[in-house]
Amino acid sequence: MSNPDRLLVDIAAMVESERNNQMSLTVVVPGAVITGRLAPVALWLERVAEVLQSSDHLKPFAALFTPPADGSPARPTHLHLHRAKILQGNFGLPHTGGMYRIAIEDISSWTVGDLSYSDT
To answer: Do 55 and 79 meet the contact criterion of CB atoms below 8 Å apart?
Structure first.
């Protein structure tokens, strides 16, 4: 989206306003539908750093994911999803969910809530 959806930016800003704010969201980006839990960037960075820190090979990269001391930008430019899955066929990848950073300008459509498949 060359002109990001103002409502989506407002939702992201509200999530950023408090560390405990989270919201389930599904977005459509070129080539994928991604569903997960929108979280504040500081929380997302912390979780990614924890994963990297636990890996001998990736540990040096953990420092890059330290939240900035000056806080988040006035208007969000990216969504930060955790427990996120790329929906493919009748399952999500990765099965356990992952950490995704998505540029708001790349989102063509979205809905509140996470999509999942049911065998019933």
So the answer is: no
Going by C-alpha positions, the residue among 113, 120, 112, 115 that lies closest to residue 92 is 115
pLDDT per position as a tens digit, 16-65: 888 788 899 999 999 999 999 999 998 999 999 999 999 999 999 999 99
Using an 8 Å Cβ cutoff, are 117 and 35 in contact? Answer: no
Helices (H), 17-40: none
CA pair distance 64, 49, nearest whole angstrom = 8
Residue 95's SS3 state is: strand
Kindly report the average pLDDT of the chain as a whole number.
Answer: 87
Is 60 exposed, middle or buried, given 0-12, 13-18 or 19+ CB atoms closer than 10 A? exposed
List C-alpha distances in Å: 15 to 79, 94, 111: 10, 24, 15
